[in-house]
Structures are given as structure tokens and as C-alpha cells.
Design brief:
heterodimer, A: 158 residues, alpha+beta, Ubiquitin-like (UB roll), DNA polymerase, domain 1, 2 domains, 5-stranded mixed beta sheet, B: 781 residues, Aldehyde Oxidoreductase, domain 3, Aldehyde Oxidoreductase, domain 4, 30 strands, binds FE2/S2 (inorganic) cluster, oxidoreductase (chain B), molybdenum (chain B), oxidoreductase activity (chain B), Ald_Oxase/xanthine_DH-like (chain B), AldOxase/xan_DH_MoCoBD2 (chain B)
Chain lengths: 158, 781
Amino acid sequence: MTDKATITLTINGKDYAIAVEPRRTLADAIREDCGQTGTHIGCEHGVCGACTVIVDDAPVRSCLMFAVQAEGKNIRTVEGLANGDTLHPMQQAFMDNHGLQCGFCTPGFLMLAVGVLEREPNISDEDLIDVLSSNLCRCTGYQNIIKSVRAAAQEMRK
Amino acid sequence: MSAHTKGSGGDGMKWVGRSIRRLEDPALVQGRGRFTGDLPSARWVRFVRSPNAAGTIKSITAPEGAMVITAADIKGVKKITPMLHKFNYKPVGQPILADGEVRFVGEAVAAVVAASEEEAEDIADLVEIEIEDTAAVVDGRAAIEDGARQIHPEAPGNVILKGEAKTPGFDDVWATAAKIIRCDARSHRQNATPMEARAAHAAYDPVSGRITLHCTAQMPHLMRTAIADCIGMPESDLRVIAPDVGGGFGQKMSLCTEYVLVTWLARHLKTSVAWTEDRRENLIASFHSRDQYVTLEGAFDKDAKLIALRADVLSNVGAYSCFPTTCGVEPLMAMAEMPGPYDVQQYQCLARGVLTNTCTMAAYRGVSRPVITFTLERLMDKAAKAFAVDPIDIRRRNLITQFPYKSAMGLEYDEASYRETMEIAVEAINMPAFRARQQLARDKGEYLGIGFATFSERTGYGSPAFAARGMAITPGWETVHVTVDPSGFVEARIGSSPHGQGLRTTLAQIIADEIGVPPEMIKVIHGDTDTAPYGWGTFASRSLVISGGATLIAARKIRAKLLKIAGHMLEAAETDIVLEDGKAKVAGTDRDISIAAMAREAYTQTHRFKGEIEPGLTESGTYDPPGTFSNACHVALVRLDAETGHVKVERYLVAEDAGRIINPMIADGQVHGGVAQGIGNALLEEIIYDESGAILTANLADYMPPTAHEIPSIELHHMETLSTQSITKAKGLGEGGTIGPPAAVLNAINDALTPFGVEIDTIPATPQRIRALLRNAERAT
Ligand code: FES
Ligand code: FES
């Protein structure tokens, strides 16, 4: 059970050579083996979406993927969203519209929303709520998350 | 948001009242938050939990060579025994690891310690616990039946707490009633479900011998006191840090056995030891809430005026009493606050806390009031029906309009706006238009309903309120230290411990107005017992009122000192000096000096102030207010699908009065979040036990917190009745959002159900429950 596989994960453009058990989830590998703790774990069973990261341009739940499956793929996490000191429009919109309270679900929502809007910049309001309902937030009541993502969508279209 | 003001109006403040962006956000949106689970550790703990709800532990077998800790290993560690000196309270102790007997599914029986989380998990799977099973007592009513098995010998009949109240003229007035209206309400068990589950990380420092415990706590100082007490260690050897905390909602307020054990292990093994709770553990073994049966009867006179109220509150408190509030947290608050916003001077109540073989019950956002409000508001709607008056009208006849008001239980209500907030809501809703739409829909076989809920929320109460309950631990006051450092930057060290409420920003706004520096120059330091003053943390909608008050007191002292310094340095009368834009200015002149320059002098040139001020620029404020009452009217508009029993909340409106609003954006966010939890409580969320005491809802797909789909857009209207019981004039609002929805949504569902002649008085009002009612109705016709 403890045989480890040596793999390289590419997170935010940087390579991490790590040794993990085949059963290790991508979420655990990102957090513990690569030290990128911005990605959070809220359930480990694929319901809450706190662990959402972008893998090869699609938002995925990193608790439902094994680290070994992510080898050779391009992984983006919340730590890589900002461009130096300039925040991503999504991060800025969450701050401007009070889209976060405790901030625990926030990295997952940011990655989910960025991943979706990059693929579908003109997403309808209805579809947007559909997508956002795949992650859970216990603080904001979603009102300001929806508002933030709409504001960022406008900004990203520019 | 629209604002309505009642009271003295604004004081020309520059920062208070503005929706400035939160100072906490830049780190959090960049993934730079620091949460307990982010810390690396040398050792990891996995708890082995009881699969049985009740029984005797026969043996615990650990795999060869594994480190497995059981009750026998921690003999010197004290049980957690919360105390209450009243209400026939029977103290029962909770062992840190089950000792001889197990009392609920999920109770920690052993702790495995290993080098990694995975290894600890693997070993835990191999630990064998043999338990001789006994029949479990799961339901609150079953627990008080004759012959029910005793959960603890100390509490005969399983009643751990019993409060009784009756006003002297009750029986006489009751006898004169024109109608007695009754509501039998049931609230099922719920879980606060913060997105971050609990976590603890204890590290031993070989140089000082001290332990630093990072944990997900709402009350770090009291955790330190209680844990040191259990373990029997000097309290000053323990430092407790609540770093970024991913929501608490009351669940992270109580002391949990796991933190005691993790701290004990770090001390014992002289290394770092960590535990991160998984979601299943959180759902079965953290703390639950809301599990209650409430029978409420109202005596009304012929004009539909409530003249007497009788309540029977039965709370299933689980297997133990929680620390520090004790299991009185729900039943005793229900007893004290049941009459809510209604004017009724005759009152009788029996409130009981009963023990069962279920997870311990503790505070959850709204505490008791979501249930009492839902019961009381159902009673009002039932009475309206019985008297054939409008639901709004019956409230008009009964809401308190004269302040201050002394309740039948002796609580002093300060100025509030029960009637006014309801009228704002009524106007915004346009009832005639809704009724017409409802009729049209009904004709097409579609069922719409509207429900109102008015309530008062006791907030910001100081130590006397807890003392009145007879609590051994009486939280209430807060202390704040405000320092202007020699560079002119400001820090405020607070005893409160926010976890998402934006307190760093709102307190900075209060200070900014007093001493004239912008909020970005002010740091609020909290959640660390080494760097923040002793205080009670964040719960019960208290922080902005109490910590805010203490902050204002300290900031005013700093202001007085700055004015003195400026007077000397600018050679002007203090009364001519204004503090703004980071400067002291002499009014009507162009003379000014920066606060940074004055701060430098306060430390380095103390001789210049001729002994008139103490050296340095630190001041303290302590505040222990009597408490105040926020209030609101919530309105839910629902669509009921009679085929499936599914309810959709189509519109939700809140007219709220929380006194002065320091930051409207943050205030609105608090209300939104509360309403969403309340809608979840009303429609979806339920911890389900089977008869054997096993939990059937141990993941988030079965225990269903609402998603963006279930929450409609929430319309907010604010009133600001400036409180005389709070020096910032702010009333608390952290919980308010959660209190109204069960009542408003249930009343709305029942309005929609009118054509079927059935009613539902149970939360959550799930499709299954609604369908069962409709099926019975179909059968009956
Ligand atoms: S942690 Fe991955 S979905 Fe919850
Ligand atoms: S902000 Fe706290 S869970 Fe979303």
C-alpha cells in the first residue's frame, strides 16, 4: 500500500517532482507535497467544490482525481491566478462585491468561475447559476458570489 | 438596499456607514489565508469512533507496534463537566475518550498517532473495538417515557435540565380566553456545517516547554482556560491561536474533546501533533442543534389579542452537555425569549433538556430563535385563520409598539421597530397584487404562498445575561487595546475572534472616525492568546456591539491624548483641533501636524508634555453592555409543486433593523448568508438517525446545505433605530438572517397548502413530508 510513484506535477507553470502513493488525491498532493495550501478541502467526496482547480483548462474537483492522473497536465490553482501584483479580474470582483466572508470556499469558487468563463465568456445568467450551484458556500448565501462572477465576466470580456 | 432611519440620525462620520472593501480579502482571494489544516506536523491523529450508540466497551485491540491511546492512557485528564447552578441542572461529565461506556455513534473511543494522516487512517481501520450493545434512546420524547434507559445515572429520567416559569396572574387570564390556539411544532436535528471542518494542531516548543495550539475556535481564550484545566497544566504554558477560520456558526464555540487530546499528546510526546476532521466526522460527531418539540398555546381575547402564552419546550441535547454554554443553550433561551416581539404579559413555560444516545447539541447560528420564531409565527397564522383576520392584521394587533418594554420574563427591550419593519415589508410586497396572482395561479393548478415572520433578536448581551442563567462561565465583556505605534500606524488587539464577519474592517472604521486615520492604516489583531487580550470571542451576534464598544472607548482615550499632544505641538486650544486625514489641524488655519509625527513625540519626547499624559500611545477599553434587541420582518414567497411536494422560494424579502450600520456591504452579506442557512434549515437540512442510533446523513449529498439554486435573490430594506444600550448605537445582526426563514417559509408553504386543508408544522419541510400530507388529504376526500 505504501509503494510510492515518482511523478512531476506542473502547478502554475512550475514543476514539482514528488513521490506519492497511487491512492493520493490530487488535492492532497497539491496541498501537502507541493505546499500550495490555497486549494482547500471541504468534504473529500466531491460535493462541496472547495478543492476545485483547473486542469488543462477545465475546472475539476481535485479530491476526486488521483495525483498520478494529473502528471503531464497543466494544473492551475488560486496561487497562480494573479499576475504578479495585479489581481485577476475574478479576484478583484470578489473583493469589490463582497463575494467572500470566511474565504474558505473562495479558492474553489474562483477556479470554478474562471475555468467556466474562459470557455464560455458569454454564459447566460441562468447557466451561470447552474454552474455555481456545483460548489457550496456556507457564509455568503451566494448572492454576492453571483454578483462577483457577473462583474468579472464583464471585465474578462473586455 | 433602502435605508429608513428612526432615532437621532447621523453624526457626521466619515468612515462609519460606508461600504468600504474588506481589509481581510486580499490574502484570502490569493490563497494566502492561513488555516489550521495548512500546517505541517510531525505526528497525525485519527480517532477511532464508536459504531454503536450505546453499550459497554469490552475490549480495544490495537495492531502490533501501533500507538493507540485509550481512556486508560490519559487517566489524569479531567472530564469536561459544564456547570449551571440553576434549573435543576444535573452536571454530567464527558470523558476525553469514551471510558467504559459509549453513548453515541461517533464518540471517540481511541486515538491513533502516526507519522502521516494516511498511516493513522490505515491503523485506525485495524483497531478492533468490541462493544456490548445496549438498546439506544434516540428520540427526545422517548427519552422521558417511563422506563426509558438511563443515559447517565446522575440525571434520573434523562432530564438534565428543567426550567419552569409562570407569571402570577396566568391562570385567571387564561380562563378568560375567547379562543385557545395551539401549535405543535417539530424541528429536526441540524448541523451548522461550516465549510472548514474542525482541525487542531498542537506544537511543543522544547526551549520554553510551551505548547502552541492552532485550532478552529470561535473562543480561543476560553479554549486555553478549559484545555489547560482539563490537562492540569499552567495556563500560561499554552498559547491558543485561531488563525483564519472557515466559518463557525456556533459549532466552533464549544470545547471539543479532540482539542484536549491533541494538546495532551503534544505535551506528552514533546512534538507537533495534528488532527483534521473529515466531513463524515463533522456530521456525526461535532455538535448538532435544533432537535426540538415545542408545543405552544396562545390564549386570545375576542379581538384576536394575545393575552397569555403557554409553552412546552423539549430539547434533545444528545449524550452530553456542551462547554461553556451547557445544554441550556437552546431550552433556556427559548424559555426566556419565547414571547418574542409580541405584547403578552401572562406567560407559562416548561423547558426541558433531555439526554439521548445522540451527538451532543450545542449552539448553532440563531440559537433557539429559529425554532421559537417558527412556532410563534405559526401560532399567529393559525390564530389569524381562526379569527378570520389577515395574518398581517393579527400581527398589527399584537406587536409591541411602546418602548422600553419589560417582557413577562423581565427582559428589558430597548427601542425597536417591530411594526415599522413589518409595514415596510408589507408595502414592498404589494399584497393585493400577490393575492390576485395567487388566485389566478390556483385556477391553473399552481400553488403560490406568502409567509411573514416578525421577530426580535437579543444581541450583544454582556455578562449579566449569562449570570442570570446561572452559568459557571459568564462570558459577556470585551477588552480592546488600541495602540498608535511610533510610525503612526494603528493596531487594535481584540478579544473577539472573527471568522468571516469582516470585523477587522468594521472595527477599523470605528477607530478611523475617532482618530482621523484611514482604515488601511489600522490593523486589527485577534485570535491569538499571546497577542490579544482575554476576551470571549465571536458568537451570539456580539462582536460588533461589544468589541465595537470597547474599541470606541479605547479609541476615544487615544483621541483625547492626541488632542493634548497636538495642543502642545501646535500651540492651540484642544477644542480648536480636528483630527482628520492622518493629521491634527487647527480649525480655520493652515496649521497642522501629522499623527505620525505626534506619535513619534509621544514615545520619544515625553518630557514635552509636562506630565500631562502617560508616555506612549496605548489605551484600553472594556465594555460589558446590558444587551439590546435587533428586529426584522422576513417575507417568503414560495411556489409549491403539489405533484412532487417540492417547494421553491421565489422571492425573499427582509426588512431589518440592527441599529447603526457600520458597513452596509458587510451587513448585507451577513443577512444574505443567514437567510440562506435559514432556508436550508426550513426546507432541506436534516441529520437523520435510525432507531439504533446510526446516522443516515453522514455526507454532504445526504445532509443537504442549499446551493445557489435554492437561494433566490434576497431583497433587503434597512431601518436604523439607534440603540441607547450600545455606545456605537449598533445592534448585532450576525444571526438575524437565520432566525426568520423557517417561520416565513413555513407560513408561506401553509398559505400555498390552504386549498388542500392540510398544514405542516415541521422543519425541514421536505418534499417527502409535504407529499405525505397531501396523500392523506387525497385519501380523506
Ligand atoms: S473537497 Fe473536493 S468536492 Fe469537497
Ligand atoms: S465564504 Fe465562508 S464558506 Fe464561502
